[in-house]
Predict the structure.
Amino acid sequence: MNANLERRACPRCGSGDSEPRLASEDFMLGIAGPFHAAACRGCGLLFQNPALPAASLGAHYPEAYAPYSRRPLRPDPAALRYAKRRLGYAHLETARGGYSWRKPGGRAAAETLLLPRFVPGGKLLEIACASGERLEMLRDLGWRHCSGIEYGEAPALRARALGFPVHVGPVERALDAIPDGSLDVVIASFVLEHLENPFTLVRRLAGKLRPGGQFLFSTLRVGAPDFRIFGKYWYNLDLPRHYTFFRDEDLLELVRGEFEVEGRRCQAAPRDYTGSAEYRARRENRPFDRLLLKLGNRIRPACRVLAAMGWASRVCIACRKRG
Ligand SMILES: [Zn+2]
């Protein structure tokens, strides 16, 4: 067992009583494990326990970590048309390109892109902004006051080079410098699962937003078929980098105190299945996994159907601060 692992209390209810559920390894980067997920006996939350202290995690986000690879974000034409009509982006040129049955409609595309309603002169913060791809897209869409927080120094420097003020370091510390009630939008794309305590962090974020401010985030949820089929081989388990594995009721608890939920959209990526099959194939020999790996991205239409039914492990949630 990794000697640096420490026992933790449940981040949702504070209980120190939890039962082991999964032991897994770091399939992505190969850090010596095993690592563990436990279910709280108080509230049922699944979380990494025992876990590496977050302060030691820097070494687990090498430059090769996939989200740090620089890929421009290009909004879908359908998302732009929806944004222009429904989200206040009337200043945008009319987006070309028609609706296609192969692609989700405008609202779905805008929700999965975590596109906020436009606020002229508004202040927007992205948590874990990586190399600034999303901030760049939002600036192109008319947001003039965009800033970021990023844990990794190299991607943060790239985002700064694009002209964005970016705080380098843990989000919990970076928030100290932001005045309460000063932000119109906070965006967090697949980051809450990386935090030791997303519940206290979301409460703090609420404090930084003005009343009516928007909080848009995506994260991972357990309970979808990919998690049920693959368990400790689940691609999105990603131990030891993920600390919290939300059920829908945990996600509701996360925002219930301060926010109204305005939109919720599930997403499934072929990788949720093919990535999991790849991990399992390293330890077990199953025809089902070989089939998935052979099909590869051809399972995308099936993933769309599952997502439309809510059976998907990625979820995008749009909330508005009460008041
Ligand atoms: Zn608990």
In short: The two ends are 48 Å apart (CA to CA). The longest strand covers residues 209-220. Residues 76 and 252 are 29 Å apart (CA to CA).
